[in-house]
Design goal:
2-enoyl-CoA Hydratase, Chain A, domain 1, 19% strand, 2 domains, Transcription Regulator spoIIAA, 7-stranded mixed β-sheet
Amino acid sequence: MKIFKIALLAMVALFISCEEVIWDKGLETINPKDNLDYLWKECNEKYSYFELKNIDWEAIKVKYSAKIYDGMTEDSLFNVLGKMLTELKDDHTNLVSNFNISRFGTHHLGQDNFDWRVIVDNYLPKDFYISGPFAHSFIANKEIGYIRFSSFTGEIDKKNIDFILEKYKDTKGLIIDLRENGGGQVTDIFKLLSRFVENETLLYYSRIKNGPGHDDFSEAAPAYVKPYEGIRYKNKVVVLIDRGTYSAGSFTALATKALPNMVLIGDTTGGGLGLPNGGQLPNGWTYRFSITQALTLNKSPEYENGVPPDIHVLFDWNNLKTDEIIERAIVELQ
């Protein structure tokens, strides 16, 4: 697994280094049309999800080229180019200037499904534990361990995860709450999941764009997780997800589909299963977009549109004393 991760990251790094090395200063220009054409071509040759999302990129070029005119302001040009990128419907896709950042907002595709205050007020003691990136405590008469993991910060280590798993070793099950977790360090995924497997397990496949055609990809490379040689948890684990679960959060949700002791509850994730990379426009603005695909065990890229839960439950905003998703997880674990 470590070899796969290093190889994939090396390929992404190569894309980055190539952008830096081959940039031709003779291309520098503030001409609006030249910048649109450059950005469109970069996406056309390197973006990884045109086919899955059924995006007619040629038609989009025509649409946004018609909005370009001589003498337009930087702000107007940014709005045109930024909106062109949002047609990709991908939160790993951004245009960045010193005055704005474009974004899509996949979390708006579904209702808000998480309120930390409801959990703190109705499920956790005031002195709940904070161990590295995790907030946690016993719930349900101390029969279940609840673990809030809000971001993949790269802070998972032996001490904090050992402490948590030792503390909840005798529970009926664990709840790992990834709602509104927008992602972060992918290495955290394997540090976490290695504590819940007993055998080396194939989680998913990944491939990277390797040519200008929309369907030009490398061979699919398998991603495995190996059991951690130390404290592991063997009982059932429920992972809570929603539209705000993105990137590394979605990778984790995808991986649980291969783990029989894990169940996903909540709403479909926001996707974000393509690792992003980008470069610089002729006018100096920077951009990024997805250049890889994560694939299911049957090698489908379909979960880029969101990893579906095994059990679909939505938050009832008319009742702020109960978290319906946690309640359903408790039922699943008892």
